[in-house]
Structure formats: structure tokens, C-alpha cells
């Protein structure tokens, strides 16, 4: 038996019955490498950790996400569908970054995503630290602010660290200030952990961001929380940003700023699946730091969350385009 | 103080107050090594990974399960009972296997378990990849199909891989085809994860197997699910097969095909305890792959699940024999 | 931006915007080292594993708890308060121990804590194996028995091991016998795991200790269980002892006697927070064994639990002293 | 500054000043993926461990060799030359294998290398267990026996294991029996370690193989030993087979059959460099088992040895072709 | 092919062609478990670390030495001989120890070895920390002082630590004081590392012990040093004590007191082989601490050194008894 | 027994017989924390990895060097002397750095060392990546160029990477260009590994730097090489820079740019000891990257090399000042 014949004429992940999962180059989901211009959904790596203030290592994230994504197969077990039968998906390689120059990296990333945006492909990014979301949003911007749902232990709305405005604790403050994100269409889920300054939440709250701390999430459950989140996000274009540290460090230890008491992967999957039907204009999975992930569990979890995101996007695109 | 005097005159685990748990040979549960003919329940290792299609290593499973089982003590904390006071249990050594010949291994395992079956001892196996369940069922077979409850992330009812009919993704299809298992008395719990081909579930469904995916399990809970499972299994002879990958990879990372969002050990223990009173004719704990388990947590979890299975079997035997 | 100006004039953790968290000496919570006489709450290490009967290593616990505590910031995310704004807290160094002489270590620890008691500072200890709680209670004793709440997989009320009365399986039996703890004001939460002798629970039960096994905890939930616990503990002076093995080994693998099916960190945090307002006279976090914790997750979890305990104590002191 | 302009017009490793070494797909040496027909030297992976009798894992070897080869740069520091300036080199992908069928894998490998041989490209292989050398030799064979130099802790000239003629302890006995290798032009260096049967050496000795045990190597040194080896190998076509276990397990722990007291990497490099000028018709680096190599040191060592082999081959080709 | 038929009628290691090396119980060298009275050489474990002053863990040494000894085969590759063909060897189990009582452990070990001495079997011990050598020497003593050769980074002739006379830094001072060892027939090889008190060497020097520091060893080489050592040891009864920390921490990281710049395994093997023909009355391999040896390399090295010691003893016994 | 009474009245490492090595805060060598103004030799950490182009992590270097330095004792085993008896030494804390701003970090480091220079204390630094040597040299500069001996696998004389002049591949080119180092009094030992551009060596060679590749070192040996090096360095002020990657990755795996075939620790110690008597004005040990050093071996090696450097400096100071 080989894998079933794909329903679509475009490139597919390597057939697991022909090329064992330990063989072949570790591209995202074992997909071919293609140009964004030729796909509907572009899987892109951003190898970067210049925005990290404590434990770095996310520069190695894309490589290990690709490596572990060999464990992911074609069809989603709940829907039974394969995203590769619905839309054209490929590994579109790594975004250029500069390992020694933070500000230059922001420019490189913005330019790269502006190029992707021109193709019309929806990017799903494997980071990289969370600062990368800022230049991605800049690159994707078509002028109007987008909605944003963020899964994260941290609000990332600090003003600055060490007098520096651009780091992985500040991207969403900058994005709001720059008009990239509409804070009234912005939701954060999974917040927790001790903070240097609780006033850091004041900016977000004042701007209109809906912050759902882990305690509220636990009390209400996935469905109630997501009903509210979907109401806030509405039908407009929406970006999805998933910081792997939203998930508990027992299931995602390989990250720079772990906080105990986090989401289970079971909850994370349920949350992502409730994004079905939204107008997702881009998504990312960030903060996987392989040097702190010797077992590969974090990257494996991250790759699976990327697949869940891909399924949501593909289903949604197929529904609209269908 | 020493461990309490056993209530039974037969061999017992080493007394932890005489031989520290770090001392002595690592037999299963620190029990003596005996012949199956002299026990009621036989703990057996099957060091084998010839059926693995991606990440191997379960050939080292029995050794590490034994090693970690030194952490398990005599009495179950819920029942207060010691299985060793109820029935005769021993480590009956490893089943022969052939590291270079899959088909010969199937023959060796079948023959070994046929020998065990003759003694009347109930085998509880520490694997080994999941393919070993097939020759075990063959060896134990008395002609009539048995019921089977399987805890697993995967259905293992594929037809073949790489054109090969015997591997760890196919044992239950073969067992049904061979009349070893009655699919109408078969339940699978914990299924999840992306699949190469969703049609793989069709065979099982068509055959009458009750597949309970993790989403249904979470929605209904242990008791509701097990009420149904027990109704399906009924009073007939039943085999219990526990694939360690049913448990979440944060608690059982050391396995070849991990899938996030799995059972917690707490749920797994509750599930196994609800097997109480069934007519268990054999059980196994498979897919522990020590090379991917540097901390030993997976083997420790596996050894504890084996103890839970042993307690269920011992209680049941005592109740019947009593 | 720097960390906000502390509300209090006394020493504070290093400012994360001036000294990165990877820099500086790893004291508890990055606090200055001070004498207990100059603080309200004293964070103290007890590097000791002389009481361990199986897997040792807790002698290295205090160092790694300090190391990982660099990840903890000033303010609690639920209350928004910083304990350092409410009371004077410092790292008061390590208690002397003798690595080759168990009984001498008991004397050294008792003497050290008697000295701390004289200062009026409330000690929060990072152990060390659980035996250290006994000499701590002796040192802190003012004659009358105190109440005690213990989070633990084990009751630690055995009589002896290998004929030895003082080890990490016996401290609470000794404490009750010595009149240090009032067993009718004593609660144990999270008990589970196979036991060498179920009769070990009889002593505790007969003495009046309320033992809440994990199964009861799961059935009732945090609030119901803690309502009962608070009723038992009442308003009197109460000691809090948190054995890290109360938490599931997937979240706290680095300990000598792990038992699957344990508390989640989410539950543990909720439990500790429900201690708010009690008259806590001392607390400890014990059984972190770094040699079995290569990723540091256990020490990170332990350090965070110490912070949760600190917040409870600081809030309580502030409320009383206010 | 960027990497210097290559002296040759053909594809080159990614420029480290444009694409950081942590970025991009991990091909061998960061080279493009090409067809063997378009290169002079073909770097090929053979993901296979079906021939292993104890600790498997070499199926993951090619992926990790590629991953670690990102650390290798263009120019050899002793010669100053870049092989990529001398000949056309590329990553020619993985050879097909069958994870469940040893004999079918032998056929697949032989066929693949027969195809490579037709192109005239010289293959340098990253294994895979040592059995893969047999079908490689079969595939490359042009009828006449070749010379062979083997770096290995083991002679690999057993007759069989478990009654099986094809496994990683037997390839060179088979190769001699099949007339693929001329035993009088065959040298083994680094032999050591306890043996199941010292008579296993008798076949090799009788056939005329020159076996140089580690003790003789240490007594004589690199130059003396290699002078003799070169005299034995002569000018004829020669295959080079490097088993990573030739190197000491402190420098190459990730292998299935480690033996203490091995070659240092310093010695290994010196030995390989002394192959300069030989008529090398193929080479391999085998037995890297990533599951036993958590730090990646073994794969990094293996990738560097592959680079040393590549430099020897490129220099030799350039000298002849020049 | 199976392993060759042993030349002797007594028990042998498991045949690697019948029982794969990953199968079966991990006894020393896969030998049967027997009573010392029935063998010529008794392999014995002493699971103990009560004498450690810094990093413990050697209580787990015997188990992991046994585990890794599965990699050792029957015949020595230099001599071609199998010790099991020359003398009767078995795994004689673990010596009793008390995990909470150092002085009682000394009594238990002495008594156990006194029992072994009565049988006439020569014990080769796998420790355990180095303090165990003291009670072993006491137990083996027949009144007259023996000669002793010690491979160690440390002299272990301190007077006391923390006021305690019995710990792993003092055994040889005690042994000399007690007349168990004749200091004029005592040699130490491999000494190095910073010391708390250089005067610690004065006792040994004054007593007549020949201390060979690593610098002298490097300058002179194995043969010159061993010529002198053999002259000092002479023909009288001699005990061999091998502290694994004599070997460099890159090759033996899993020990409590590592010192860089140590013996290579190659040198260690050469040194041990030069003991050939001595009248060895006992030997040990101590200080393997598995919690600091995640890869198992140290235990594998230790098991191989035990095999080298066994070969020396067996050859010597055969020569005398022959 | 306690450690011997120091010969000097100033602060000393904690007494190992009073405070076990696992206890107490991990300062460098367990020394007190003091101001550089009060010491002769200042041990300083520079937690920084902003100059790394591939694998980062050296920001965590100082903490782990301190942690592992607890294993180092007071007296050198060859000289018998304790540096703490000769000169005043202390842990002078960490130099300020900016985790997000490379150029600001260079300013901070320069300013800090300028301050140290004013006190007259000789700094021995634990890095940090190798770029830190540049601002250290700037801070220490008194106008005249100093001599420099560098132990390193790499020359670190590239011009730039990614168009950036300041990174860990360029410090010594900058130092020469800026007149901080006299290239005719500069020696590099241990160079090796493939290079992006062999022309990178041309700058150094043209400037007059003596580059000793590993092959030359092996051929000549420690003494011959150091005789030459000392002749080049002469009597003038000399800085010593030790990149841990000079040492072989089997003994120092935890570094960003490992190269096989390196110095053994035995050789490294011998090399450092041959610096005796030089006029050392400062020294550093850089490139320890703890995230790639799970066992701590690299940091332990680094701490020991720092001790060797300290002994050389102390002996030299004592000889001059005596
Ligand atoms: Mn974030
Ligand atoms: Mn976050
Ligand atoms: Mn399965
Ligand atoms: Mn499964
Ligand atoms: Mn406890
Ligand atoms: Mn406990
Ligand atoms: Mn080989
Ligand atoms: Mn080999
Ligand atoms: Mn010793
Ligand atoms: Mn030693
Ligand atoms: Mn450098
Ligand atoms: Mn370097």
C-alpha cells in the first residue's frame, strides 16, 4: 500500500510508503521547496533570535521545526481532510536575517514578507523569536489594521527593555502604535507568569486589547473563550500569532521564557481548531529554541501546531474559493 | 522496620528494607526469575523493533522497563492490596527474537507464547513494538476469537507499509483477518494524530471495531467511555493491549510515533483500573523506545502501567479462584 | 524603560532592565544576601540528601533552585503585587549540613533554624530531602504544636527504613511523636503511588491526620479540598511543606521518588494560592534532585512554587502588620 | 565581506556571509541538490540500519550528517584548497531503502549505485550501517575486484549472525567471497575490542587482508602504517570505507558498537590525508547512530571526515584531470 | 554461526548469536548468577555512595556497570583468549549495604568479603565509591599486609573530612594505618588536580607509597612506569584498585570528582595489561556515578576495564594453576 | 581536619571542610565578592554573545564557569602552591553588557575594564564570546601595544561578516588595526578547521602574527612551540586569550564553533604552565556556551584553565613583588 492518491494535481508531501520519514531532506511537512508565487499557502522560516532578552536559540527554530515536521502526516484526524488536497502549499525557504544586526533584520524580514504579500500567498511562519511578528505584519500590511489573536504566556506589550524599543517583549505595542493591528480586534490567550512590571498590561488594556489570563481560561473553557474571541475578531482580516510558550513547559520546554501552569497541547489544539472560518491573512509559530529542547518535543509540538494552523487556513481558503 | 510479611507463601519482590531499590538485578518488579509453569501471572519481555517504520529502539524496551520497575512497590495505594499476596507472579524472562529477520521473529514469539499458554499462566508482556501483539495473540489462541481493548494513539489497522503486511501499523488488521480477535468485541481508546490515509480507519469501522478518538474521550470522560467499553467487551476472554503512545509525549516521550494531545497518566491509570473484573487472558505494554527516553520517564510510566495491569489481573484471578 | 521603582525602601531583586537575567550571582530571586535578623522573610537553602533511601541528589537542590529562580520576576500576575514591596525579603544563604553524618546534620539544621526563629523572620526553605523538615520544625518550635499542610505524593509517616528512624520517609511521624505538629491540624494532599506497606497510613490516620489521596482530589477539585483543609488548619500557626514530587513527574522529573498521575503545576499553583491569609510560620520546597533534572524544569517549577509561597506569606504579613 | 568568489563556475556551498549557517535546508555541506549525472563527486545518504545486531539508529545517520555538515566551510586549512573549486560536487539525495526488508534494501542500494556508476560520478556515502558497503560495492563493480582500505574497530568479516549472512558484521567477508574486493589489496586499521570469536579474524588473514590492530598502529604511528597501506593498495582502483567506530567513543559516542581505546580524530584526519593521490572510486562514512548522539558530536565528526575524504578525492581528480 | 563452543565445561556468558545483546537480564558480562563458593573469580557489586563528600551517585554504579557490560564479548582481542575458558567466573550479586548508615555499611561490606575470602574466589568488584576498598581489604585480609596498585586522580590518603575519618578521600590512609596494605609495596598512578591541602601527600610519601603524578607518567610512558611499579609490587599478594576518575573526564565523565588531563582509555588498557602475572588477590573498579553519565560511556568504559582486569586475573590463575 | 590555615591574611575560598562544595553561592573559585580596588587579581564575568555568527549561548558562560569552579581546590598539584596565599584574588562580579545592542556592549565593556585598569588589579575574565577581548584590550590599554598569546582553533582575524566589522571572528584584526596589540609580539596556537576564506590568514601573516596550526604543534610538541612563543612575546606586557575551542570538542563540546582534532586538556595545561614568568597584564577564557554543554564538562574545563591562568599570574606577581 502507498499513501492514497492526492485529490489535487499539485505537489504533495513525500509519500511515506515510498520515502520513509527518516529519509529525505527535512523540508516543512516534507513538501517540495517552491516560490511563494506558485502556492496558496507559503511555509516560511525566520531564523532569528536578535530580539531575545534572556535565553536565545530561536535562530535554530526553523531547522528543527522542519526536522520534526517529518512526523506529521497528510490528513487531519478530526476532519479527515488533507490541506494539500485543498490548496497549494509548499516550503518557501527561509527569510533572510542578519545575525549581528537587529534593525537590519527587521528591514530584511519586512521586505521579504512584502514580497510574499504581493504573490497573494498566505504565509505561515516558523520563527524565530516573537519580535519577528512585527516586521511580518509590516510586510503584509495593506494599509488597514488587521485583527490579531495571540496565544502566549506573555502580553509582549512592554514599551522597551534596556532602553531598546525592539525586542521580543514589545512587538505588539509597536504593532498597535504603528496601526498595523487594531487593538479592538485583538485577543490574547494564556497570559500568566510573574512580571517585571504589572503596568505593562495597562497599555494593552487601555488600547482595547482583550487579555485572557490562564486563570480565566481555565474557569471558562475553550468554547466559551473562543466564542468571545471570534466575536471580537469578527469577519475582518486576522493574523494568528502562536508563541510556543503559551503551552506548558512540560510539553514545550524548549523556549526562552517558560512559565509553569500553561495550556496543554490538547487545549492548544482545540483553541486553534476554533479558528475555523476566520479570514486568516497570516500566521506564525514562534519562540521554539532548540538548544533548550534536546528531546525535540517542543519542535514536534510546534510543527504539529503549524499543521493545525495550516488545516484551518486551507479549509477556510477552500470554503471561500470553492 | 522491614516490609510487611507477605500474606502468601510464594516468591515476592525483594524487600525494600533489606535490599535498597538501587541494588540487585533489575528483574520486573524485583521479582524472582521463574518458569511460567510455576506462576499464575508471567511477566515477559519481548525485545523487538523489527516492525517499526520510522524511529526504532523498542528492542531495548524490556530492559529499561525492568530497570525502572525497581521504583514500583508491592501494594496498590487505592485498593491497599498487593498482587503478590493474591497470585503467584514472577519475571519469566525474555521471549526469543531474531534481530535480523522479522518473519522468523514472528514465529519465535508465537511459539514462545504457545508454550506459556500451555502452562495456564496469564502473560503480561513488556514490548517491543506493537507488531509483537500479533504473534502473542497467535500463541495464546485457543481457536476462538477473543475480545480486545487497545489504548493507543493509532488504530494499527493499516493494510501494509512499503508493500509489507507485517509491521507495527498493521497488527490488529491481521489479527481480525486471522480470526484471533472478534472485532465486535474490540475497543480502541485514545486515537489521534495526523494520518497518512484516513481510509485506514474504514477497515476497522467496517469490521465493527469501536474507535474512540481522543476528542470523544475528552468530551465524555473515563467513566462514560469505560461503561461503554465494558459493555462491548462483555464477560468473554479479553486481551488488553496498551501502546505507551496513547499517553501524551510529555509523560511518555520515549516512543517512536509520538502524538501530542494524548492521555494523561492520571487518565490512563483510571482507564486501566476500570478493567477490574474482566476476564483478562493476557496484556501487554508496548512501544517504549529507550533511546528516545533519556530520563527514563517513559519506562517508569510503562512499568507503573504494567503494575496497574497486574493488579487488575491479580484481583480478578483471586476473585474467581477465591 | 527600567523595572518600576519599588514601593518599598528596602533591598529588591536586581532590576531586569539593568542586569540581564543571565548575569549576576544566582541568589534566590536575584535578591541580596542578608542576615535573617534584617528581614521579614528569609529564603534559606538546606543542601542535604542524607535521608534519601533510593535516588539521592537533593544536596544540589538549593543551588539549582537559586539558578532557576532568575527566571522569576517581581510581581505576581494574579494579584499584581510584588512581595518585595510588602515585606523585607532576602537570600539568607545555606544552612550548615554535614555530608557524611546524618544525625549531626539534624543537629546543625535545628540549631540554624532556632537562630532564625529568634530573629522573628519567617523562613522559606529550599531543600534538601524531606527529612530536613523535621529539624526545621524542631528549630522553629516555640513549645506548642503547629498545624501543617503537606503537598506530597507520599505520607512520609513510615516508622523506619533499614531499622533507621530518621530518613525522608519518616519526618512527619517523628514530628507528631515529638509534639512538634498537631496531627488534628494536619492535612496531606496529593498522596499516591504504590507503597511498601499500606499499614504505613494507619499511624497517620490513627493520629488524626487528614490524608487526601490524588483520586479524592481529582474528584473534588481544588476549592472543595482547600475549603476543608483551611477548616482543619484554622487560625493557628501553620507550617507549609511542599514536596516537589506532589507534582507530576512530567513537570517535575528531577526528584528521587517520582509517582505518575500527580498534581499539575496549574493545580499546584491554585492550591498554594488558597493558603492566603493563613498564619504561616514557615514553609519549604523540598526534594528537588538536580542530577535527575537535566533540563532544569524541576528547579524552575520549584523556584516558582517558592515564589507563590512567598507571595502568600508576604500578603499575609502585610495584612496583619498593615 | 562575503565568502571569496569561487574559482569555478559550478554550484557552490551557500555563502556563509549571506546565509548564516543556522539558516537554509541542511544539505550535505550546504551544497545544492543535483543529479549525479551533473557532478564529478556525488554526496549520497543511505538511511538504513537493517543490518544492525545490537543498537540500531543509523537510519537517521544521513539526516544528522547533513545537519552537522553546516559547520564545515569551503577550504581545507592545510592545503588551502576548496574541493568545490576543483570539481563539481553536490548533494545527490538519499538512496532508496526498505525499512522492513533487509534483502530488498540490498537490491535497492545496489541498483541505485549502479545508476550512479553509469554517470561516472564518484560517490561519497553517508550511512547507514556498515552492511551498506556491500551493495554499494556491488553497484559500483565493473567486474574487476577493487582495493579497499577500511578504518574500523571491527573487521566485519564474520560469516553470519543468528544464521543470517547479511548484517553489519559480515560485509567484507561477502565482498571478498563475491570477488568485489581483492583481499590482497585490502587493509584494515584500528581493529580492537573484545570479540565473540577470535577465529573471525582467520578468514580475513587467510584471504590476505592486512589487519592492523590499534596496538600496532599506536606503536608505529600514522606515517609508518600508511606507508605500508599505500604500498598494499598500489595504484589500482580503491574504495575507502570509514566506520565511525574506528574513532574513540569519547569523540564519536553515537554509534552502535563503541570500543574504548580508539583512534583520536587527530589521528583519523592524518590517516585520511595520507590517502592523497590514490585512485579512489568511492568512499563511505558509516555507523553514525544519532539516537545515541544527543550532542551531535558524532555526526559533526562524521561530516568533517566526509569533508576530508572529499578533499582527497577532489585533489586527486584535479591532479589526474588537470 | 553461533559463538564458538567454550573450551571449558562451566557456565559461560550468554551466546550473542542466540540471545541478542539487548536481551536478557543485565548481569556482569551476561554471566550466570552464582555463589562465590562455586567460582574462581567472583564479580561483585557494591552499591554505595555513603563516603562521598561532593557529588554522589555511585550507589547506582553496579547496576549500570552490569548494563553496559552487555557490550563486552568473550575473547580479548590481543591475547585471543577468553577468561571464561580458563577459570570459572560468575556474577555473584551485590554486597549488602545500608543507605543511611556509613559505619554499618563498612561492617556489612567487610563481613561479605570475609565470606568471599573463605571460598577462595578472587573478587573483582564494581563500586561504589572508593571508600568501599577499605572494608573489602579488611574482609579479604589474612593478617599480612598486601601490596596495592591504585589508578586514581587522587591519593585518597587524607586524614578526614568534616572531622570524619571514613570517606572516599581517606581509605588508603586507613588501610595503611590498619596494616592492611604495605605502603612500601604500594603505587599510585595518575594523580593530578588541584588539592585542598598539598600536605595530604606527605602522609603517603612518608609511609613509603610511590606516587606517580600524571606529569611523570606522561614523561615516562606506560612501560617505564609499569616496570618500576612491578618492581615495587614484587611477587607478593597484590590488590588492584581502579578509580574511574584516573581516566580523563571526556572518556569517563560520570564520576563525582572529575579532573581534566587524565589517562586516556588507551593508556589505561595498556597499564592494566602490564599487570599480567602478578599475584592479584582482588581488584575493584570504583567511582562510576551513573546520574552524571547520561550516555553510559563511563559505565561502558568501567565494564571494559573490569574485563581487562578479569583477563589479567584469569591468565594469571591459569598460569599458576595450569 | 579542615583545610590548612592560609598563609595569607586576606580572603580565601570557602573551606571545603566547613562548607561542602555543593553548598554556598557559586562565585568564581568560591571566593568572596569584592571590588577590584581591593585585590591584585580580579576574576570577572562578561556575559555576552552578541558577536556570535552561528551558535550563541556564551551569555550564560560566566554563570556556569562559576558553578563548575566549585570543583577547583586551593593548591596547584604541580607547584604545591595556592595562588590565594600569594596574592589577593576575588570574584569581582559581572561586567555590564547590553543583550540587544552590540555596539553599546562594546562601550560598556571597555568602560568597565578601564575602571579595573585604574585599580591596578589584573583581570582574568570568563566570557562571553571572543569579541569581548577587543573592548577588554581597549579598556586595559595604556597607549602602547601589548603582546598577545592566543589559544584558539580560529585566527579571528577576519575583516567582517555580513558586512559587520565587530563579531567574534574579527577581534584580533581590529586590535591590531587599533594598535592595541603588537602583531610582532603575537602568537596563535591550535589553529585548524575548514575556513570560509583562507585569505583570512593573510592579514595576520602580513602583520607579523606567528600562527601555529595544530599540525605544526603536534609535530613539535609543547616545549618546542612554547620556547618559540616565549621568545616572540619577550619580557613586555602580554595579554593571554584562551578560546575554549582550542581544546578538542570531546573535552569542550559546549562551544559555538567546535573543530575536531584539537588540543587535549593535558596539552592545554602544559601550554598554560609554560607561560610562567611572563608579564601578564590580563587573561581571558572565552567561548564557553552552556546550552551546548549539558554535562558541564566544558565549563569545568574552562574553570580549571582559569585556575591554571590564575596560578601563573599569581606566581609571577609574587616573584616580582616578592
Ligand atoms: Mn511572545
Ligand atoms: Mn511568550
Ligand atoms: Mn500501536
Ligand atoms: Mn501507537
Ligand atoms: Mn515527602
Ligand atoms: Mn514525596
Ligand atoms: Mn564496521
Ligand atoms: Mn565497527
Ligand atoms: Mn579514589
Ligand atoms: Mn579519584
Ligand atoms: Mn576565538
Ligand atoms: Mn575559536
List keywords for this structure.
homohexamer; 322 residues; alpha/beta; Arginase, Chain A; eight-stranded parallel sheet; 8 strands; 16% strand; globular; binds manganese (II) ion; metal-binding (chains A, B, C, D, E, F); Agmatinase-rel (chains A, B, C, D, E, F)
In short:
With 322 residues, the first copy, chain A, is α/β, with parallel strands linked by helices. Chain A has helices at residues 61-68, 83-86, 102-119, 133-140, 171-177, 200-207, 214-220, 222-233, 265-273, 297-321, and strands spanning 41-45, 89-94, 122-126, 146-151, 181-191, 210-213, 237-243, 279-286. Chain A is built from ten helices and eight strands.
Describe this structure in words.
The structure is a homohexamer of 322-residue chains. With 322 residues, chain A is an alpha/beta fold. Helices cover 33% and strands 16% of the residues of chain A. The first copy, chain A, contains 10 helices and 8 strands. Chain A has helices spanning 61-68, 83-86, 102-119, 133-140, 171-177, 200-207, 214-220, 222-233, 265-273, 297-321; strands at residues 41-45, 89-94, 122-126, 146-151, 181-191, 210-213, 237-243, 279-286. The longest helix of chain A is centred in the last third of the chain and has 25 residues, at 297-321. Chain A binds chain B through residues 1, 3-4, 16-18, 20-22, 71-78, 80, 248, 250-251, 264-266, 269, 294-295, 297, 300-301, 304, 307, and chain B through 53-55, 158-163, 191-199, 213-215, 218, 248-250, 253, 257-262, 292, 294. The complex binds manganese (II) ion (12 copies). The site of one manganese (II) ion (MN) has 6 residues of chain A, from loops.
Amino acid at each position: 500500500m502507498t499513501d492514497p492518491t492526492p485529490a489535487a494535481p499539485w505537489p504533495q508531501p513525500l509519500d511515506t510508503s515510498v520515502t520513509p520519514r527518516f529519509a529525505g531532506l527535512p523540508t516543512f511537512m516534507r513538501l517540495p521547496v517552491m516560490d511563494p508565487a506558485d502556492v496558496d499557502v507559503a511555509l516560511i522560516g525566520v531564523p532569528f533570535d536578535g530580539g531575545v532578552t534572556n535565553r536565545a536559540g530561536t535562530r535554530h527554530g526553523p531547522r528543527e521545526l522542519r526536522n520534526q515536521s517529518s512526523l506529521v502526516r497528510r490528513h487531519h484526524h478530526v476532519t479527515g481532510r488533507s490541506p494539500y488536497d485543498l490548496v497549494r502549499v509548499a516550503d518557501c525557504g527561509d527569510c533572510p536575517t542578519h545575525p549581528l544586526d537587529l534593525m537590519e533584520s527587521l528591514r530584511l524580514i519586512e521586505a521579504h514578507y512584502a514580497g510574499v504579500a504581493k504573490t497573494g500567498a498566505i504565509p505561515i511562519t516558523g520563527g524565530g523569536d516573537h519580535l519577528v511578528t512585527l516586521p511580518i505584519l509590516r510586510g503584509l500590511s495593506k494599509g488597514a489594521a488587521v485583527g490579531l489573536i495571540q496565544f502566549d504566556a506573555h502580553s509582549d506589550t512592554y514599551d522597551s527593555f534596556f532602553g531598546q524599543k525592539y525586542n521580543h517583549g514589545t512587538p505588539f505595542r509597536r504593532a498597535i502604535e504603528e496601526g498595523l493591528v487594531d487593538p479592538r480586534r485583538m485577543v490574547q490567550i494564556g497570559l500568566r507568569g510573574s512580571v517585571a512590571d504589572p503596568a505593562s498590561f495597562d497599555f494593552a488594556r487601555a488600547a482595547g486589547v482583550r487579555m485572557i489570563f490562564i486563570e480565566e481560561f481555565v474557569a471558562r473553557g475553550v468554547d466559551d473563550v473562543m466564542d468571545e474571541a471570534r466575536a471580537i475578531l469578527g469577519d475582518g482580516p486576522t493574523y494568528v500569532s502562536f508563541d510556543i510558550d503559551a503551552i506548558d513547559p512540560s510539553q514545550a520546554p524548549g523556549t526562552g521564557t517558560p512559565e509553569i501552569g500553561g495550556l496543554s497541547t490538547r487545549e492548544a489544539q482545540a483553541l486553534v481548531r476554533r479558528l475555523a472560518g476566520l479570514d486568516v491573512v497570516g500566521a506564525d509559530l514562534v519562540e521554539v529554541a532548540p538548544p533548550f529542547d534536546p528531546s525535540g518535543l517542543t519542535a514536534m509540538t510546534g510543527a504539529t501546531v503549524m499543521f493545525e494552523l495550516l488545516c484551518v487556513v486551507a479549509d477556510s481558503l477552500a470554503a471561500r474559493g470553492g
